[in-house]
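Researcher: Predict the fold of Ion-translocating oxidoreductase complex subunit E.
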Amino acid sequence: MSNQEIDKGSINTAPSSTDEFIKGLWKENPVFVQVLGMCPVLAVSNTAVNALAMGMATAFVLLMSNILVSLLRNFIPKEVRIASYILIIATFVTITDYAIQAISIDLHKSLGAFISLIVVNCLILSRAEAFASKNTVGKSVMDALGMGLGFILALFSLGAVREILGNGAFFGIALFPDGFQEWVIMILPAGGFFTLAAWLLFFNLIKQRKALS
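Model: Structure tokens for Ion-translocating oxidoreductase complex subunit E follow.
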């Protein structure tokens, strides 16, 4: 095989921007496959609103960090790259913190310290180090959008189940008639583990069936 044919083959097998986006939704979902960012996933997914807000805040920081890291990847010395990534992430976390505070004080209080803890979310740092620092801005944007949307969907899946079973409501709207016995444990930390385990089991069953078919 000639060098030209080898080059063509490598180009054809390179993931497209669409592949970079889709992988975060299913194949490499940050929660259901990579099991990353478990602290906010378990702590603030007690209601659908909290889960959605935390997911969107994390996705915003991930997107902006990926863009900036990709833009600066050729200028950041390797010796200080992790410190530089953390500084970039912390900047966007601060912006997000103030934005949520301006939009809703109640939501800001509900999410509490977990907004600031986005700085140490291993999902964001791992995408900066493993992907954005090695790829173009376009691919880094698609990677961040896919991973961010996958993270939002996962958090929302947990939050919806926990709120419905734990409060008998969805986005604060009551779903069941009087007399419904609420499963209080579902909005407690233990309920987060139970719900996550159920979703992981469901996700793996689907993957196994697809692999066998």
